[in-house]
Amino acid sequence: MNKKTTLHLLEENIARAVALLESGKNVAFPTETVYGLGADITNASAISRIFEIKGRPTNHPLIVHIAEIDRLDYWANNVPASAWKLAAHFWPGPLTLILPKSSHVPLTVTGGQNTVGLRVPDHPIALALLKALGANKALAAPSANRFGRLSPTSANHVQQELGDKISMILDGGICKIGLESTIISFCDSIPLLLRPGGIPITAIEEVLNQKIELNKNLKHALATPGTHASHYAPNTRLEVWSTEFIHQRALELSAEGLQVALIIRADSDQLIHIQNDNIYHILMSANPIEYGQQLYATLRMLDEKNFSRILAEAPPDDIPWLAISDRLQRASFKT
């Protein structure tokens, strides 16, 4: 297929997606982080359908995806200078800003809160879709998966998760980041980190020239996407263990006759020298960016192999690994 034909096909798919969204249907689309499940923000029934499709609590807010920074103050009120500064630096990109919502954002999108999460995604298909929708439109879109489960990083993952529950999946290939956006709140006197993600907190601090507080210091906790204690979870039970004890735990489970998948980093590869027929080793990158790109797809692949247990080596206690630590902690939470 030549470039001209590919471009024409993409334009046709975008036009079809817009028509579906405008008619109140739900469309899955790619972003640089994970695939989103989109609804026209002006269509109440399409927004309600998102919660039904995902099995998501209605008080759990949806992130609003917009086409460009110039529309920020259409969707939010009283945007502080520091929020504009971050948007100018990181958008399009994996940064969500929590701000006081404008009257254009329905409470069904925000889970009943007077705040809204906004971002401009860094993916050509997502941006083309948003621009085709029009200036006063946006996509309310959580990740395109069942609530609490692994986020999808490919169109095939969306198909596996949601199948014929949605009207269309725009295929944009593999997501280049693979972890959800960093969420920063500006609903207090200082910016607060509500969720670590695709942009390191150190990069945000450098732009603002100030330290960013963590959400544990929030006096009035906001409901925030992706921050339930149990989230991002595979179907297979996941445990996180230190480098020192992970293989001991694997051997204990193996002695019980369980098939165990062991996720370790490349800089811990001495662990794979212990051979056991019940233990399957997965070697992950020692680079946190590459690890993040691989994480959800790896957990999904292990789910398909029907292991009894997945053991993940705890990441280093360093800022670059903060988002990985957050996802593994929530994915392994025992409900």
Description:
This protein is of the alpha/beta class. It has eleven helices and 14 strands. The protein folds into two domains: 3-217, Alpha-Beta Complex (DHBP synthase), CATH 3.90.870; 238-331, Rossmann fold (3-Layer(aba) Sandwich), CATH 3.40.50. It has helices at residues 3-22, 44-54, 72-75, 81-90, 107-110, 124-133, 155-162, 201-208, 246-255, 288-304, 322-331, and strands at 27-29, 36-40, 63-65, 95-100, 115-119, 139-140, 168-169, 182-185, 192-195, 213-214, 238-241, 260-265, 279-284, 309-313. The longest helix has 20 residues, at 3-22. It is globular and about 60 Å long. The termini are far apart. It is found in: Cytoplasm. Required for the formation of a threonylcarbamoyl group on adenosine at position 37 (t(6)A37) in tRNAs that read codons beginning with adenine.
Identify the notable features of this structure and list them briefly.
DHBP synthase, ten-stranded mixed beta sheet, 335 residues, 11 helices, alpha/beta, 14 strands, single chain, four-stranded parallel beta sheet, 2 domains, 17% strand, Rossmann fold
